[in-house]
Write the structure tokens for this entry.
Amino acid sequence: MEDNKHSISTDMPIGFGLSLAANAAAMKVFSGMTDEEKRQVIEASRNQTTKEEMIRFVADIEHLS
């Protein structure tokens, strides 16, 4: 039987991870999320097409708490 759970770090887009690492407040909120919430945020991050969009997307995470 195959395990369908993937490591969040291996599924995370690089641009999202870098932007998140640069924003301590967003990182704190993200780290407090459930695995399902994190999965949803990561999936939504895949819709960001520019660096500026990704930075705004990550900044918006701060306000989810």
The two ends are 37 Å apart (CA to CA). The mean pLDDT is 89. The longest helix spans residues 35-45. Residues 12-64 form one domain.
